[in-house]
Specification:
This protein has 14 helices and eight strands. It is α/β, with parallel strands linked by helices. It has one domain: 3-Layer(aba) Sandwich (Rossmann fold), CATH 3.40.50. Strand 3, helix 7 and strand 4 form a beta-alpha-beta unit. The chain binds thiamine diphosphate (TPP) and magnesium ion (MG).
């Protein structure tokens, strides 16, 4: 992408202002990815209850709009640190439900090849760093990636997620502070789902963490986390700001964790009526209604999207169940990095970005020739 292209995109989207232009196909994709996350997680939960998933099971029911809307706004050469409520972002980047379900069952076809029976994965080929379970340690990793992008002069963005509970940890402060000081191209997506395990918001913070952005010297915005287009638009604006040298953004998404922390948690600490009131704001039902009321989608079209997802997940679950356990001899293979392997690029379904080339030529490894030079200079 040249500078001229970047301006053209801004104008295209804007039609003069800063509103992104989503096509009908884009909108169907947003719905499809949210449905895919919901259906794959429902299938995973069933497999857990059938005793086919060791350990526990974690899902992001009710939070689908956040990971789908935000990741959809990125370009293939952008990079992601995805957390435990963000399955939609893995799907948008190109992971299949089959690989996700196989991972939970510890099968060889899982993203980690059976090394993790959970959600601690990220496909490096798709531009995603494997999830670090200690919270919020993906925040400093994303900040570090953004620092590398800035030092290499690349127009790329790092995006990461965290829950509101994670913002109470000191690492979070360090990541925000450094990102602010160096005006790094990073987008922080905060998912406030009401609880950190059983701890409610009122025992987590005295001031909304989104408001801390200003004190770190960058933008903080609050969006309705159950509105996929609102999350998408905030993410486009934040990533364009980052790409243009305007520094980080903290996007605060308010939502609700509709299931327990994990499948073992009965949520008995959630007061009566809370889940019922959030159920009425379900992001998928809402988006379906929005597409029918404002974008001319027929009920039949919407049902077709849903049916295709149901069929895909059923087929993927069958394949995951058929896939073998890993060879025991491979148990210690690939645990440590033996050589430097750059991350690859992910899929970017949003047509405007995917159609355009990056500003600087980027090779198959996702690094520009000039960046190779600066890396080896700094290593020397
Ligand atoms: C440093 C650290 N302490 C505890 C945990 C265990 N743990 C995993 S998720 C979680 C809750 C985090 O809450 P929040 O950040 O609000 O994210 P949510 O699970 O609500 O999406 C906890 C305590 C952890 N992973 N890392
Ligand atoms: Mg939380």
């Amino acid at each position: 992408m040249s500078d001229g292209d970047a301006r053209a995109i801004a104008t295209d989207r804007a039609g003069g202002a800063s509103e992104p232009v989503l096509t009908r196909e884009d909108r169907a994709s947003l719905l499809r990815f949210m449905l895919l996350m919901r259906a794959a997680e429902e299938r995973g939960l069933r497999l857990y209850k059938q005793g086919k998933v060791p350990g526990s099971f974690y899902d992001g029911r009710g939070q689908e709009a956040i990971s789908v809307g935000s990741s959809f706004a990125l370009a293939p050469e952008d990079r992601m640190c995805i957390l435990h409520r963000d399955l939609g972002a893995h799907f948008v980047r190109g992971v299949s439900p089959e690989r996700y379900l196989a991972n939970y069952m510890g099968r060889s076809g899982g993203v980690t090849g059976g090394k993790d029976g959970n959600l601690h994965f990220g496909d490096p080929e798709l531009g995603c760093v494997g999830m670090v379970s200690m919270l919020p340690d993906m925040a400093p990793v994303a900040t570090g990636m953004a620092l590398a992008m800035k030092m290499r002069g690349e127009r790329r963005v790092a995006m990461t997620y965290f829950g509101e509970g994670s913002t109470a940890n000191g690492q979070w402060h360090e990541a925000m502070n450094m990102a602010g000081i160096h005006r790094l191209p990073v987008v922080f997506v905060l998912e406030n789902n009401g609880y950190a395990y059983s701890t409610p918001n009122e025992l987590e913070f005295a001031a909304d963490p989104v408001e801390r952005a200003e004190s770190y010297g960058f933008h903080g915005v609050k969006v309705d986390g159950n509105d996929v287009e609102a999350v998408f638009e905030a993410s486009v604006e934040a990533s364009e700001r980052a790409r243009g040298g305007g520094g980080p953004t903290l996007i605060g998404c308010r939502t609700m964790r509709m299931h327990g922390h994990g499948a073992h948690d009965d949520m008995s600490y959630v007061p009566d009526g809370v889940l019922e009131s959030w159920e009425r704001r379900d992001p998928i039902d809402r988006y379906r209604r929005h597409l029918a009321d404002h974008h001319g989608f027929s009920e039949q079209e919407l049902d077709e999207v849903a049916t295709a997802v149901t069929e895909q997940v059923a087929e993927d679950a069958r394949r995951a169940l058929d896939s073998p356990m890993p060879e025991p001899s491979l148990a210690s293979e690939g645990l440590y990095a033996e050589a430097f392997r750059p991350l690859g690029d992910g899929v970017a379904p949003w047509s405007r970005w995917a159609e355009r080339k990056p500003l600087r030529p980027v090779n198959g490894n996702g690094r520009s020739p000039s960046s190779e030079a600066s890396v080896s200079r700094s290593a020397a």
